Amino acid sequence: MTGWFIAVGLAVVAFGALLLLGRIPRSAREISAAALLLGLAGYAWQGNPGLAGAPRVSRENAGDKFDEKLAQQRRGLAERYGPAGQWLMLSDGLGRQGKTREAANILLAGLRATPDDPNLWLGLGNALVAHADGVVSPGADFAYRRALTLDPEGPAPRYFYGLALARNGQLQAARDVWAPLAASAPAGSQVKAELDANIARIDSMLAADAPVGP
Question: Which of 29 and 95 is assigned the larger pLDDT?
Answer without folding.
Answer: 95
